[in-house]
Amino acid sequence: MTDAPPRRFSIVLLAAIADNGVIGRDNGLPFRQRSDLQRFKSLTMGKPVLMGRKTYLSIGKPLPGRTNIVVSRDAGFAPAGVVIARSLDAALAAARDDADKRGAGEIVVIGGTDIFAQTMPLADRMEITHVHASPAGDTYFPPIDATQWRAATRSDHPPGPQDEAAFSYVTYERV
Ligand SMILES: NC(=O)c1ccc[n+]([C@@H]2O[C@H](COP(=O)([O-])OP(=O)(O)OC[C@H]3O[C@@H](n4cnc5c(N)ncnc54)[C@H](OP(=O)(O)O)[C@@H]3O)[C@@H](O)[C@H]2O)c1
Question: Ligand 1 center to residue 52 CA distance, Å?
């Protein structure tokens, strides 16, 4: 009897990026986009979510209904209710185990810049909300290389009632 082939999981980057590339300010979001928070929830619920320590602190608590995997090299950082990983490899291994247990087909990387930069070379897909504003900020999404990524689908939206700006949902796939 042969072993079953290793299970394949997609690694998906999920981010909201302003037109000037900004994704964060003062360890928080640089724009108020209520509709994007709803989209974030629907794209992550029931899946392992992988994030850096600073993003976890900006959220302030574990996201319910998801396995929160937080990377930090700080041995003293051990909040309750999350899986702590001391390296990206350890985080991906924990996320794969969790996706397997949950029957989830993907691992969702939710930031911030540091983690996006390290995982973009491994990613299969990126679900990006382009927010059509240019806020001040101190953290940026890594450049999306057009020789590596193509916009597979795009939809444009006016601001919702609690959004600061118009936005576009773009799914990027490997070229
Ligand atoms: N607009 C969006 O979609 C979006 C999404 C997420 C976050 N954000 C924003 O992005 C900002 C935070 O991003 P950031 O880049 O400053 O921080 P981050 O990526 O959230 O966290 C960085 C931290 O992760 C840990 N880390 C990184 N690589 C590691 C590795 N290979 N092994 C172990 N630990 C590792 C380190 O923690 P230690 O220092 O503890 O070792 C590092 O300081 C905030 O403003 C947040 O609001 C925006």
Answer: 4
**What is the homologous superfamily of the domain 10-174 according to CATH?**
Dihydrofolate Reductase, subunit A (3.40.430.10)
Going from the C-alpha of 101 to that of each of 64, 87, 105, 136, the distances in angstroms are 17, 21, 10, 41
Task: Read off the DSSP letter of residue 33.
Answer: B
If you measure from the C-alpha of residue 5 to the centroid of ligand 1, how many angstroms do you get, rounded to a whole number?
33
Q: Dump pLDDT digits (tens) for 92-103.
A: 999 999 999 999
Can you tell me the distance from the alpha carbon of 91 to that of 112, in angstroms, rounded to the nearest whole number?
Answer: 15
133 lines ligand 1 (CB under 6 A): no
pLDDT in tens, 59-90: 999 999 999 999 999 999 999 999 999 999 99
The answer, yes or no, to whether any atom of ligand 1 lies below 6 A from the CB of 52, is yes
